[in-house]
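Recall the central idea of this unit: under ordinary conditions, the amino acid sequence of a chain determines the structure it adopts. In this exercise we apply that idea directly, starting from the sequence alone.
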Amino acid sequence: MAFTKERKSEITTRYENWYDKSQAVYILSFSKMNMKSVDTVRAKIREVGGEIHVIKNTLFKLVLDKKGLPYPKGFMESCNIIAFAHADPAAMAKLLSEATRNSEIFKVKGGYLNGQYLNANQVKELADLPPLAVMRTFVLGMLQAPASKLLRTLAEPGRSLAGVVKAYSEREPAPSAG
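Accordingly, the structure predicted from this sequence is:
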């Protein structure tokens, strides 16, 4: 089906808007696709704050060219689906990695994170990172550790003195000479 120039411009603008709203974009190839498999993946992707769309390769290439983003030869060939990660790129990569692990339907080809091209192995490495909440907790723990050690160090002399005073007050009075 041939598109008019206006329709192509409209679709390209939509692709560009999706790209601009996303923190990361992942390209997946597909074959023997059925709606059940797509709907299952689409529902999971919505849960992590993203969306997935079947795209027209030539029009998406125009967006990549306009943004100045590199792509390897043959990257935008065959049937592709684009996953747009609006919230958490690592969670989306993890979900796509799990969805494609034993799938004959989908295969991760690569993607873009903050304007940088990622090959399929780099997407897999991103998927292997701990979730964002775990990373935040780890960093917060690292920041709090020196402060809590300093607080314990400053409080120790007072605690020791309080122990001496308490022990002195609890001791039995000495027998009076008399």
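The first helix runs from residue 5 to 21.
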